[in-house]
Amino acid sequence: MIIPVMTIIAPSILSANFSKLGEEIKAVEEAGAEWLHIDVMDGHFVPNITIGIPVVKSIRKITDLFFDVHLMIENPERYVERFADAGANGITVHIEACENAREILQSIRSFGCKAGLSLKPATPLESVKDYLDLIDILLVMSVNPGFGGQKFMPEVLPKIREARKLIDESGKNILLEVDGGICDENARIVREAGADVLVSGSYVFRSENYRKAIEKLLL
Ligand code: DX5
Ligand code: ZN
Question: In the sheet where 137-141 sits, what is the strand order?
């Protein structure tokens, strides 16, 4: 899969209407989304429980969108192969949840997926520096993971800028993704800070018109 060079919008289905999930996915696809962000939570790494492997497998049948699977779970190494088989295109794990990040990132790539590494707002960027040769996506959280609909934390902006610099200086082909509280009021500043991919859940799915909402994120 070719990674586009423009800003990518990745609606998070966590805020979609699950009673008509297929239609919701088709609607964001038609509205111009290129990725679909899929938040997987286990009730341990974060206090919430959300979507799992059968859902990914089922929605894989209805769309060719890039499935950006965000694992907010403990022991992520146990589940990488099953998410890959279910149809994930990218699998992102949290540095805070990895006992052996090197091994798990290599395993994600070995199953043909893009490998992503994420960090919570309080986790310093230093913690991911040693893994740049093994990742395709660096996911900076701009809320504490666990729930959709939280407010963007502006104090994360310096970290986003630092991450941009780190990636540029590394010369590696890594996409910088930002996740949490992204809406029309902060999308521009997040893009200016260097983000390539904007995750947006509640802002997109609670809007009247998904296309207009996505367009506003790109203004
Ligand atoms: C938070 C999730 C986010 C969230 C984004 O734990 O990782 O992806 O669903 O939703 P909004 O855009 O509503 O913050
Ligand atoms: Zn997420």
Answer: 8-11, 197-200, 175-179, 137-141, 114-119, 90-94, 66-72, 35-41
Distance, in Å, from the CA atom of 11 to the CA atom of 34, rounded to the nearest integer, reads 9
> What would you report as the CA-atom Rg of the chain, rounded to the nearest whole angstrom?
16
**Strand ranges in 100-209 using DSSP code E only, listed in sequence order:** 114-119, 137-141, 175-179, 197-200
Active-site residue list? 39, 179
Q: Which atom of ligand 1 is nearest to the CA of 202?
A: 13
Q: Which ligand is nearest to the CA of 41?
A: 1
The CB of 48 under 6 Å from ligand 1? The reply is no
User: Which atom of ligand 1 is nearest the CA belonging to 14?
Assistant: 9
Model pLDDT for residues 48-102, shown as the tens digit of each residue: 999 999 999 999 999 999 999 999 999 999 999 999 999 999 999 999 999 999 9
